[in-house]
Amino acid sequence: MSLAPLQSINERQLNTRSNAVQTPVKNAAHSSAQHLENKENVPHSNHKRVDFQQQNPHLQDQQPPVKKKKEKLSALCKTPPSLIKTRGRDYHRGHFLGEGGFARCFQIKDESGKIFAAKTVAKISIKSEKTRKKLLSEIQIHKSMRHFNVVQFIDCFEDDTNVYILLEICPNGSLMELLKKRRTVTEPEVRYFMTQICGAIKYMHSRRVIHRDLKLGNIFFDKNYNLKIGDFGLAAVLANDRERKYTVCGTPNYIAPEVLMGKHSGHSYEVDIWSIGVMIYALLIGKPPFQSKDVNMIYERIKNRDFAFPKDKYISNEAKTLIHDILSTDPLERPSIEEIIDYVWFRGIFPSCTLSTVMSEDPNYEQIISAEESYINFQNCLERSGLLNKAKDWQQVSIQQLPEDVDKLGSSYYRPSTILPQSLSPGDTRNKYQEIVDLDAQRKLNDLARESRIRRAKQATLKKDLVANSTNVIKSEISLRILASECSLTLNGILEAEAQKKMGGLPPSRLPPIKHPMIVTKWVDYSNKHGFSYQLSTEDIGVLFNNGCTVLRLADAEEFWYISYDKSEGWVASHYLLKEKPQELLRHLEVVDFFSKYMKANLSRVSTFGREEYHKDDVFLRRYTRYKTFVMFELSDGTFQFNFKDHHKLAISEGGKLVTYISPSHESLTYPLVEVLKYGTIPSYPESNFMEKIVIIKEALKQKSSVIRVD
């Protein structure tokens, strides 16, 4: 809800509604700024329909039927009385200021002459308990806010017809009005604006409050042209930082993509970060990035991140980089408030305040403010907005404020005669301003922060997607501990190889010797009846039965192993000759024979590895886990095999030192992992997407290494 600029008025004018001030009615041209949830796209009351057939029968064939006209709930709000009495304090109603979907706003003046803004909500519009709770929530949230850049909550009360929310008066309009009058805003001004806004958002988020309707029309200039965030009608409080909200709400041009996903993903603090990017773009370009006459088209553009920078509007590369990063579809890839103000863009020309001519004139700050002055101004703005990191060794300085009645001296802008505090000696200057001149280093820090966010986002996506479709149940806690230990050992081996790669790799003499691992070459999941059957590269056939035991029939001898869980040792294996098989295992061996014949007749080997002397001990499958995009096998010798749906397979063996690649054409190759990491892909097989798969493998091992207890 935008407030019109406050004009000086006398006592007679205060209680007189000016003919020049009309209640603004938003037309179809402004439909893209309408709210979604009980704000401006709410069911409206109908105007009384005019029946042309009864009043003018002769026009029956000439006039089309009149459509029912809708009006906003704010239209139900009756103009408050000229004298509002409440709890022993009287207020005099002044001019009408503006309206939104729910409320109208008026000037009111107390007996001491102090002027406030009164947000007025008609009681008749509060038709349900849900609406009442929403209004109370807005009041409670706004009342709890105490920040220099948040509109101050003063009081709230009610009479027979209205509820009144008294707020700090912001008489100089909003950023939306600024954009309408100026069309575009200079980058130094936007830096100053956004620093103040970021300070307020950081404060809100520190109190676990999401605003959810940050837009140019909800950010106001106070009497000194400082910016204040207002309108907490859609704000929500999180019970903890992990909670997600699922209500689809906001203003179309500013809605984050995860809000549009609604029930699928939920949303949190990052929706306010998204709004920062939209506002920066809108102020610099003149319109929001996803603007369209059709609201559904806006939503499609938001979901597809479909925006561009027009060639006819100048915008610095640093600003483009910041906007691109903030408007990331994945919330986890967006920079935090602290990371935003660390962007190189904020190291540009930075004013000390907003001039009172902001609504009408483009300032030329580039010619009057130096880099050193900008640095001081930036630090002061950070401090006032609550963004200054006290841990950093920044000199706390103050700069002379512009006199309230002087913005210009002659034809040149007012410039303080003293800029630097006396505590800054010439010898200190280079160190104090080192951050300004070393923009390349700051860009590198921004790049590193971006890469880290993208990496964290990918890991979070992996965690979300890495949900097992099926796996065998492990009934022994010691067995789970053994498996977790093996996963942890192999994960550490991969991390060690990555560290070695960063150091330039290993000399040939230190590379691990190549040793082909034992792998699963065929498998059949028949766990809905018997269990999971597999053939190893030794051609041994195993069945992991649903009761947890395994029968492994050896290919080179007339004998087999029976492996079961043991509470103290994990697994216990018993060796039998086929001719001496126990009666109680006959049925198990029949199932093994069945699967052996089935796999021989229907499945092909996935590897070129032949029958070799792999190990002295026989190997069996301890656990299998089926995920959406791959199957994970954990073998008893510590080998981990990953069969991906794209028919590329990887096996990690020897504690993470070796990696084996099996191609869709069954070509099998084994390398030291550090060498593949140095190369960046499997030699001659770039289509394997090795680096992407190793990230998935690490996450799977990480998850498995933390599961050490029986449910």
From TrEMBL:
**Residues covered by the POLO box domain:** 519-601, 620-706
Its lineage reads: Eukaryota, Fungi, Dikarya, Ascomycota, Saccharomycotina
Q: What is its EC number?
A: 2.7.11.21
Q: What is this protein called?
A: Serine/threonine-protein kinase
According to its UniProt entry, one GO biological process term is: meiotic spindle pole body organization
Q: Name one Pfam family in it.
A: POLO_box
Question: Which PANTHER family does UniProt cross-reference here?
Answer: CELL CYCLE SERINE_THREONINE-PROTEIN KINASE CDC5_MSD2, SERINE/THREONINE-PROTEIN KINASE PLK
CDD domains named among the record's database cross-references: POLO_box_1 (cd13118), POLO_box_2 (cd13117), STKc_PLK (cd14099)
User: Keywords assigned by UniProt?
Assistant: ATP-binding, Kinase, Nucleotide-binding, Repeat, Serine/threonine-protein kinase, Transferase
Among SMART domains, the record links this protein to: S_TKc
Q: Which reaction does it catalyse?
A: L-threonyl-[protein] + ATP = O-phospho-L-threonyl-[protein] + ADP + H(+)
Q: Name one GO cellular component term.
A: cytoplasm
Query: What Gene Ontology molecular function terms does this protein carry?
Result: ATP binding; centromeric DNA binding; phosphoprotein binding; protein serine/threonine kinase activity
- Binding annotation for ATP: 123
What family is reported?
A: Belongs to the protein kinase superfamily. Ser/Thr protein kinase family. CDC5/Polo subfamily.
Q: Where in this chain does the record put each Protein kinase domain?
A: 91-346
Q: Does the keyword Hydrolase apply?
A: no
Q: Matching InterPro entries, A to Z?
A: Kinase-like_dom_sf, POLO_box_1, POLO_box_2, POLO_box_dom, POLO_box_dom_sf, Prot_kinase_dom, Protein_kinase_ATP_BS, Ser/Thr_kinase_AS
Q: Which organism is it from?
A: Huiozyma naganishii (strain ATCC MYA-139 / BCRC 22969 / CBS 8797 / KCTC 17520 / NBRC 10181 / NCYC 3082 / Yp74L-3)
